[in-house]
């Protein structure tokens, strides 16, 4: 099996790093959406409209 050049290894590393960053960004967006929904729900429960 032939060895990868330094440039090819760097390219593969950058792609995997980009993929992980994108996945983490989606995870943060997912949890922050739940946090916003929870804040709205608990905020409206604490207000007494009558």
Structure write-up:
It is a single chain. It contains one helix and no strands. The protein is mainly alpha-helical and 50 residues long. The relative contact order is 0.07. The protein has one domain (1-50). The protein has one helix spanning 6-46. Helix content is 82%, strand content 0%.
Explain the layout of strands and helices.
Blueprint: H1 6-46
Cα-atom Rg, whole angstroms?
22 Å
The gross shape turns out to be rod-shaped
The tally of strands reads: 0
Q: Characterize the largest beta sheet: strand count, sense, and whether it forms a barrel.
A: none
* Number of separate helices: 1
The share of residues in helices is over 70%
Q: Summarize the helix and strand pattern as letters.
A: H
How far do the termini sit from each other? Answer: 76 Å
Give the total of domains. 1
Quaternary status: single chain
Our estimate of the beta-strand percent is: under 5%
What would the average pLDDT be, to the nearest integer? 83
Low-confidence stretches: none
Class by SSE composition:
mainly alpha
Short description:
With 50 residues, the chain is an all-alpha fold. It has one helix at residues 6-46.
List keywords for this structure.
rod-shaped; 1 helix; 50 residues; mainly alpha
């Amino acid at each position: 099996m032939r060895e990868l050049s330094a440039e090819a290894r760097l390219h593969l590393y950058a792609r995997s790093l980009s993929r992980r960053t994108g996945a983490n960004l989606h995870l943060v967006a997912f949890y922050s959406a739940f946090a916003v929904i929870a804040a709205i729900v608990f905020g409206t429960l604490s207000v007494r409209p009558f």
